[in-house]
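Quick question about two entries, pasted in order.
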Amino acid sequence: MVTSVFIAAVSLALFWMAAFTLWWQMHAWRTPETLASTSFDRPDGGRAGSFSLLLPARHEQAVLEQTIKRLLESSHSDFEIIVIVGHDDPGTAEVAERAAARDPGRVRVVVDTHEAKNKPKALNTALPYCTGEVVGVFDAEDQVHPELLTHVDHAFRSTGADVVQGGVQLINFNSSWYSLRNCLEYFFWFRSRLHLHAQKGFIPLGGNTVFVRTDVLRDAGGWDPHCLAEDCDLGVRLSSAGKKVVVAYDSDMVTREETPGTLMSLLKQRTRWNQGFLQVYRKKDWKQLPTRGQRMLARYTLMTPFLQAFTGVIIPLNVAIALFLDVSVAIAFVTLPAAGHRHGHLRLRGRRAPRLRQAVRVAHPSVALPQAHRRRSLLPGAPRRGGDPRRLPRASGTQRLGADQSLSARISSKTSERTSTRDLHPPPR
């Protein structure tokens, strides 16, 4: 009994986790109006604000020059590019200084002198040098659309937002077996999921193509230098402070970048993100959110690493249960779609197991069921394996016979619909 309850509880928990995730990931496509509201509005040509674009770069000399060049091609009229390089990274510093010499009015270089370096420390180093009304963050390998700043500027003016989060999309989906999954994850996150978070008033911001009003960012104290997910942490703190966040996605103006080059690099990246989410969860800034619904959403989102770990542990257990554990008929039918389609096998027990197997084959042709154990008695009234021989079933013989005949009739009806009269196989014994 305890085992059956446990199996049912785990199956229902996994089902609801999958259902919630799917519902949230498809938020942008619920209605045509919702989909239309997720894009940038057309700029009206009004007064242009100013931008300070932060570009942290470490050992990025191979791609930094091209990224700066694309940013300089922006159609916006008022922006500056601040490249942050480490004092121990002469190769990247040389590329940045060369770009600043070519366009000194647009490009400046700031040196990060921290001994232990990370992205939030680099961003905080450059924050006092920002002169624009809005601070934007990009990565050194980003491909930025020339019209992006103009549309972001219009979004700030038309919505009164404190933060604007743009879209990011990975482009090398066919470079490795894991890159396609990574690209799809980015697409649904920026195209749909973040819009839901912005609507609910709680949002873990992305790491680049994010724009924050300079005074708001300074009032918040910049980025947490000790957090491994400084972008998520900033979004949680600004959400808790009641700041307005607008998310806009346009497939033509998304910032494009590539997935990590190796599987080990991807694992290190995801490990860092998961550890950062748990850091933000333990900081408990999310508890300052005003409504219970926001706090529940924050708790669920920030505990994602725990949920992923739970799923990783439970899947092998589900496989073992599906292959080796005998379960009652009721639990088997409750968990059949999940267990059958995930693992392809299911063990049924009881006196009516042969007929139930036939019913399962009719209802779920894709589920493979192993053959019944040869030593188990199938005679009516026979004791269950390991049970008391004197224990008799509760139902009377007449009731069992009627139920068996009704089930056999339904199975025969279904079987006759699926087979032709020329190729009719005898029912299994």
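Here is the second entry:
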Amino acid sequence: MTVADLADLELAYSPPFGSAKDPVNLAGMAASNVLTGDLALWRAADLRHPDPQAVLLDVRSASEFRSGHLPGALNIPHTELRQRLGEIPRGHSLLVYCASGFRSYLALRLLRQNGWPDVRSLSGGLATLQLELPTLALDQGEPAAELTRTRRSQHPVTTGPRPALRPKRSEKFSHNDTP
């Protein structure tokens, strides 16, 4: 049996016995997306030797971003992404992330459909990243992308090198990854 077979496996859906979105089918679909290249992933190891030209794009809500985000990240919530595509620099790799990976997957698909060829989604989202890098310190505060329209032009998106990872702060990061 192959990954493609798992995605198409008929598991005789019946509400008392199984889910309409069976985990076996979903695992097959996710694996197929990775194998076919429809889903490109980035992982914790990619932060150890970051591409200085890559742009971190946080697609969580502004309140989630304020509670903790990767240093140097641009925040455009996935619900606003289509209207704010002009704020995302072209010609750079985009490393997209959210809390669990679902919203960053949606953002990846939208960005590719709109001409960004090199977009990768954080595997497992910020929750998994923090488990893999327990010393990861998140910045806190207002997202630059939430500035008013008049102030946005005064604060262009920069793609220079990001600060190195720092020891983790004592505060715990909380997240809510509902779409």
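Reply: DSSP finds seven helices and five strands in the chain. Residues 145-179 have pLDDT under 50 and may be disordered. Hope that helps.
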